[in-house]
Q: What sequence folds into this?
């Protein structure tokens, strides 16, 4: 994979943001492949196609690219809050590509893929409405909070300039595919429990430690009054997916 960005894609443009968008989108068109199937390329959609930037010509998986010239923090700026939450609830989200490039060298430094079925409402944070004097008065945007997405679902394609193999990327994507079969509400619980367990920073953990997430999960799902049974249920889901192993005697291990 060539990590050098094609500067000629923005020839004649002066706006820094426009140049960066054209250059990174051109690189993605020339370089990226589908994680969901064996297609070696993605097709770029025409400008102003709502939300979608790329689509796989073989399996029709859709991708959205977010790029910037400095490292991403804990949040990624996204579009309208209601639209994003609605897409999650209707199961129409896109695979998300988060690209960090060097402004000096114009090279890709980091590229992370978040599968479309790994986004939950809990990972979406509402922004403050625009002021009444703004052109889009009272419009409410959102952030995607990366740390609320389980580590397994933040699949590195490029990490600090090192390219991961297609085989590894596709295997990581395939491993999460069972999430796609879950109902959206149940999937959100599964993702939140997995992210919570990851936050314990332990590969092996106890049921009691999983229960320590109760207040956090209650805040994410205030309508549910039976959080502990829900935690046990989601641990079973994660076991069935091969992401958690039951060790016995109330002990578990992340796989």
A:
């Amino acid at each position: 994979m060539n990590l050098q960005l094609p500067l000629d894609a923005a020839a004649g443009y002066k706006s820094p943001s426009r140049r960066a968008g054209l250059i990174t989108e051109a690189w993605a068109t020339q370089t990226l492949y589908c994680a969901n199937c064996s297609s070696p390329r993605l097709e770029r959609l025409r400008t102003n196609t709502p939300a979608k930037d790329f689509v796989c010509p073989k399996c029709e998986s859709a991708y959205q690219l977010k790029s910037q010239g400095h490292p991403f923090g804990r949040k990624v700026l996204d579009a309208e809050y209601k639209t994003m939450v609605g897409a999650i609830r209707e199961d129409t989200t896109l695979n998300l590509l988060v690209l960090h490039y060097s402004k000096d060298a114009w090279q890709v430094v980091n590229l992370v893929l978040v599968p479309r079925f790994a986004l939950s409402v809990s990972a979406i944070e509402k922004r403050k409405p625009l002021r009444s004097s703004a052109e889009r008065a009272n419009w409410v945007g959102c952030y995607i909070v990366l740390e609320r997405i389980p580590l397994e679902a933040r699949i590195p394609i490029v990490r600090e300039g090192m390219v991961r193999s297609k085989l590894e990327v596709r295997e990581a994507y395939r491993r999460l595919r069972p999430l796609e079969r879950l109902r959206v509400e149940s999937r959100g619980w599964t993702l939140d429990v997995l992210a919570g367990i990851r936050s314990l920073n332990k590969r092996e953990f106890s049921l009691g430690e999983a229960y320590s997430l109760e207040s956090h999960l209650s805040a994410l799902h205030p309508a549910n009054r039976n959080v502990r049974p829900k935690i046990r249920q989601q641990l079973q889901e994660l076991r069935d997916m091969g992401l958690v192993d039951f060790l016995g005697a109330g002990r578990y291990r992340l796989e």
Observations:
- The chain has two domains: 7-181, 184-254.
- The first strand starts at residue 43 and ends at 44.
